[in-house]
Design a protein that fits this description.
Length: 162
Amino acid sequence: MSHFTPDPALDLVLERTIAVSPERVWAAWTEPELLKQWFTPAPWKTTAVDLDLRPGGRYVTTMESPEGDQYPNAGCYLQVEPNRLLVFTSVMTEDFRPVAPANGAGDLAFTARVEIEPTGDGGTRYRAIAMHAQEDACKQHADMGFAEGWGAALDQLVALMS
């Protein structure tokens, strides 16, 4: 995995050490039935997942609000390094075709980088980064509750995979 240095003006970072093995974290991110169980912070839920796990492959999740409203989120994988790194973006669709993002987050454009690094005790050093092209988009994502939402989802991943 190449070293990546986040830009504090453009990137939001969630970093934790968790007591879940890198293989289990990878499975949670890449197996649709597992992803549906933890990915969206409760009381929201993920109702559908369609993954083509390869660079250029599609990444589609559908989130459902407590009121039953559906929010499909589509994107494209950019990097796939098993048990180590997933990078996907909302500004491309399958086979790297550019697309305007359409999601329940105000059609917010961003690229996500999920880094998975083993710790000496069988756990994982987990780092999720949401990268944005403009500072106002980064601020919008932060104000929408990036830290709280992605943190709650990670807590759900840990509970599921422990």
